[in-house]
Design a protein that fits this description.
Helix 9 packs across helix 11. It contains eleven helices and 13 strands. The protein has one domain: 3-Layer(aba) Sandwich (Rossmann fold), CATH 3.40.50.720. Helices cover 41% and strands 16% of the residues. The strands form four sheets. Strands 3-2-1-4-5-6-11 form a seven-stranded parallel beta sheet, sandwiched between helices. Strands 7-10 form a two-stranded parallel sheet. It is of the alpha/beta class. Strand 5, helix 6 and strand 6 form a beta-alpha-beta unit. The structure holds nicotinamide-adenine-dinucleotide.
Length: 312
Amino acid sequence: MVTGGAGFVGSTLVDRLLAEGHSVDAVDDLSTGSLINLATARSGRGGEFTFHQLDVRSADLRELMARRRPEVVFHLAAQTDAGVSTARPLFDAEVNILGSLQVLEASRIAGVSKVVFASSGAIYGEPPSAAIPIKESQPQLPLTVGGVAKKAVGDYLLAYRDRYNLEFTALALANVYGPRQVAGGDASVVATFAGRLLGGEPCTIFGDGTQTRDFVYVDDVVDAFARAAGRGSGLLMNLGTGVETTVNDLYRVMAAAAGSDRRALNRLPGSGAPDRSCLDPSRAAIHLGWKPWTPLAEGVAATLEWHRTSAR
Ligand SMILES: NC(=O)c1ccc[n+]([C@@H]2O[C@H](COP(=O)([O-])OP(=O)(O)OC[C@H]3O[C@@H](n4cnc5c(N)ncnc54)[C@H](O)[C@@H]3O)[C@@H](O)[C@H]2O)c1
């Protein structure tokens, strides 16, 4: 079962699991996700697929899981808009903390063997430069509402493992990019640049563009989720490239791939965004046998191609 299965990462995971021949249930309230992302899944190729339009906060989730009896639950459903987290922290907590707790309760009652959780690099806050790339041993001192929720769910996962033997793997995602990502917010700068470059519009870089991010391609991330179904139990693992890319470099790579020689516009820095962000993936290499394999130029080219042909 994939919660958030109609979203960017979730739908890509659904496709991957179906291609491996698994039977997949996707749960999504379609608040931001779209059935268009599930067109391949619903086409009937690969394993058996069922979509359930349901809010993970709903008590009906227990009945659904009891009926469908998933072996593994991949929990990706989340309120992912940083602006909403800041403006409506109570709503954010309802979805991201209480909704996740509902998923854990339903999983426990249904006898699920494992929950694989989509956590985030935001759990680490902004560690000192010497701690970059960030390892999982870094203290979790989140500075954003979204990061606090991911940390809280990580704590619940530990407690549920200890008290109820509900197995888990938590994957801390860096800046995921790729086809199906919708523009808006810091995490989706690739989608924003893609839309604007292809539309012939200028791209805006906040600050001088020397701030760094760790851009990891969605297919690589989904590969780690699939591996985590059977490995890496009881662990938090980073899913990043370990490579820092400045926003200026990202723009250069993307503009070249889009065939644009237009310069980006620089604006005053946005508030609250970290200067440097990069996750060390060594633990995932050891415990999942996972490595990100898609070079930025290749991932960006595939993303631009998707925007050219299928963007909504
Ligand atoms: N994309 C990234 O760079 C990134 C980085 C760190 C962590 N993550 C995490 O990975 C997961 C997937 O992210 P994404 O980028 O695919 O986001 P997304 O917004 O595309 O997907 C989230 C999905 O959850 C669904 N959803 C929201 N509230 C729900 C609810 N109450 N009940 C049921 N479904 C609900 C949405 O409709 C959407 O389809 C999220 O948990 C996110 O926090 C993503």
